[in-house]
Specification:
The chain has 223 residues and is mainly α. It is built from seven helices and six strands, in the order H-E-E-E-H-H-E-H-H-E-E-H-H. The strands form two sheets. The protein has a three-stranded antiparallel β-sheet, covered by helices on one side. Strands 4-6-5 form a three-stranded antiparallel β-sheet. It is elongated.
């Protein structure tokens, strides 16, 4: 009887610790949004895990209820895209999906790296006109808003963008719709290399003299 009582107490204690552990992580997500953690972090109930491309970290993203409204999204720490410039922001998100979801036969996460140059090119082609001076301001503003809400991972210094961890919440129906959208958007140009290549010099066909004699010295020796 004593052993049975001890086992029940231990299971009860473990259950309490587990609830406290989950509550702690949910408090963090509600205050900061999706979290990037070490890959050995134990699973949390209700949070989906998304491994980074190199496997060095894992994102914890709330599993969204079907049909969740703005209030629920705010409570889960995953607010929708800001209402400021909603059309431009949605347009830039669609362009980034086109640039970063190159293998559309598979899931969108983690995707590949897109560049600001690609985004600007598709943006201008989507508008059907040459790039305007104001385009870059609109694009950067949208990228910052999408980064703040974790739809994108925007490296402003490098001018590079990846899809954010929230894309793992897209359902198969969502991804099918996005595939169709990508087929109707202009294709992005190939990404330019991020580091300049150093041209290789042809090898000297003849070895150079170790201590070449100046021409004036050679002429003097023949006089």
């Amino acid at each position: 009887m004593a052993r049975s009582s001890d086992g029940a107490e231990r299971r009860s204690s473990e259950a309490v610790e587990r609830r406290l552990y989950n509550a702690l992580w949910w408090a963090k997500v509600q205050s900061a949004g999706p979290l990037e953690v070490e890959p050995d972090t134990p699973a949390v109930a209700g949070l989906t895990r998304a491994a980074s491309p190199d496997g060095s970290t894992v994102w914890l993203v709330p599993t969204l209820p079907s049909g969740a409204g703005h209030t629920v999204l705010e409570e889960l720490g995953t607010p929708p895209v800001a209402v400021e410039q909603p059309n431009e922001t949605a347009r830039v998100l669609a362009i980034c999906v086109t640039c970063s979801w190159t293998d559309r036969s598979g899931p969108a996460w983690p995707g590949s790296t897109g560049t600001l140059a690609q985004i600007r090119s598709v943006y201008a082609a989507m508008r059907g006109r040459p790039e305007q001076p104001s385009d870059l301001t609109l694009i950067i503003g949208s990228l910052r808003r999408l980064h703040a809400t974790h739809w994108l991972l925007w490296n402003e210094k490098a001018g590079e963008v990846r899809l954010g961890p929230r894309v793992i919440t897209w359902t198969p129906t969502d991804q099918s719709t996005l595939r169709d959208l990508c087929r109707h958007l202009p294709d992005p140009p190939p990404p330019l290399p991020t580091t300049p290549t150093t041209p290789t010099q042809d090898a000297d066909p003849l070895p150079a003299e170790a201590n070449p004699t100046p021409a004036s010295t050679r002429e003097a020796s023949h006089e």
